[in-house]
Structure formats: structure tokens, C-alpha cells
Fold this protein.
Amino acid sequence: MDDAALQAALEEEVIFARMAPEHKLRLVAAFQARGEVVAVTGDGVNDAPALRKADIGIVMGVIGTDVAKEAGDVILTGDNFAAIASAIEEGRAVYDNLRKFITYIFASNVPEIMPFILTALFKFPLALTVAQVLAIDLGTDLLPALALGTDGRSRM
């Protein structure tokens, strides 16, 4: 199959099985040329080139060879493919939660620091003391932070 035919085949839903090592490597390159993020699983020496070229190389830890383990990025200690899906789900949950909390911190703390920055730049008198800012912070941030932490959409 030439490159044009391979790219055309990748437009559809297709399954590749029992591939030679050079075909695995070519398939990884074809998907990456399309802008896809490629994960490859493997356990043998013949899988090493595709594991190395892929964005994420996942190696079977029990039956995998040392060469495959060196080439891969993630080693599954139990050789269970279901662990891959669980790890992706957990990783996405962690990313979503970090993004929510960082957005919350910036949205709540940037307005609090602006008066102090303006005071330093333009030599205005302080509007609030540090104790007053901490009291306001405790009163206004406590309940929203607790609500965000117990959000049902958080998948952790």
C-alpha cells in the first residue's frame, strides 16, 4: 500500500493486525502526519521502533523485553490493557480538576492583590490592612472552595 492509499484508508475506521515491525512504524508515522496523538502497545524487541516513535509507548511489564521497556514511556506492571483506559480516565480527571482550581484561584486572588499593586505603583494609602484582607478572604473563599472540591463532576 502506498502512502496515498494508506492515508485514504486512515480516513475510515480500520483495524490493523498481525503487522510486521516496519509496518507498525510506518503506521505510527502516517497517524502522526495527520496530526494525531499516537499510543502504541507492545512487548517485544520488534515493537521497539514503533514504541520509540509513538507519542506514548506502552509496554507490558511482565512479559515485555528489556528493549521494549527501554523504548516505551509507560510500563504496565500487571500486563492488563484495562489499566490503560483507567489511567487515561484518571489523568483526565486530574487535569480537569487542576484546571478548575487554577481558574478559581486566579479569579479570586487577582482582584485581591490589585489594590496592593496599585498602592505600590502609585503610592496610594492602603485601603485595607492585611488582617482585613485575610478576614475577607476567609469569609468569601471558604464556601466556594468547598463547593468546588465536592463538585459531582470531579472524577477523582
